[in-house]
Records
---
Amino acid sequence: MGFAIKVNGNTHNVDVDGDTPLLWVLRDVLGMTGSKFGCGMALCGACTVHIDGAPVRSCITSIDSIGTSGITTIEGIGATAVGAKIQKAWIDREVVQCGYCQSGQIMSASALLASNPHPTDSQIDDAMSGNICRCGTYVRIREAIKQAAQSNG
Ligand code: FES
Ligand code: FES
């Protein structure tokens, strides 16, 4: 079945079954491998992308549920003002260890700061609670989010 999906501002026509998870379309059809597969059950956050600015787990989001909504992935988030601040803070704070979870972490953090430019510690913890990091980079993630929030003025 054919679907036209808008990813990072570009429309792509894909021919897949309607129940195909968005993650597979991004990775296998469009070749955007920045979004990662971890659990496939909305438990780890590695596959997080934005749909109309909201963080969603692309591993459980079927392609036929997206309609005309705009999708943003880790490949495109740096083009947004908040995404650029988050990525700079991630580099400054040397957040990344193995890196596997980090695109999902950055997508959740970007969605948080886009909706709440100055989150409290508990709001950061709530927003990031669904993103698991096996390397335990949580302290640096929180520091980086705070640094990016400070640059919001
Ligand atoms: S792969 Fe989607 S939440 Fe784990
Ligand atoms: S940096 Fe390794 S899983 Fe998070």
Note: The radius of gyration is 15 Å.
---
Amino acid sequence: MEPEVKQQLDEILSHYRGESGDLIPILQEAQERFRYLPSEVMREIARFLQLPEGTVFGVSTFYAQFKFVPTGRRIVKVCRGTACHVRGGARILREVEKQLGIKPGENTEDMEYTLETVACIGACALAPTMTVDKETHGQMTTKKVTEVFGGRGKAE
Ligand code: FES
């Protein structure tokens, strides 16, 4: 493990007593810090909690919130739900793909963005919608996509 990763993980672990109930909060903090859960980090968490590695891997793969491959600094989610679909969600997704130059499940080369699609972000009245991290963008148009990404796709 790289010393910098080890140092950051130790700092996270220092907030916990090492009880098995600490597993999920530690995984959440680790993911927030590293943006995904590297396998060496999960092994170290297992050691700290004195749990079998298989348990830590098993629990983390059970929850959709945990990621096991590196993600970009910002997560973009475009809604593919019915309300968004009927209001042009597919066009918004195409525009985001074009401007970022990636497909859902991919990261931009500079690791700034990861693109995902979701079934509904719970803001159907604002359809079509997308989120960038915790920000929700509603009533999306292709022009608004450009505003969100600062003309990124056009500049390249
Ligand atoms: S269907 Fe898109 S926000 Fe609900």
Note: The longest helix spans residues 23-34.
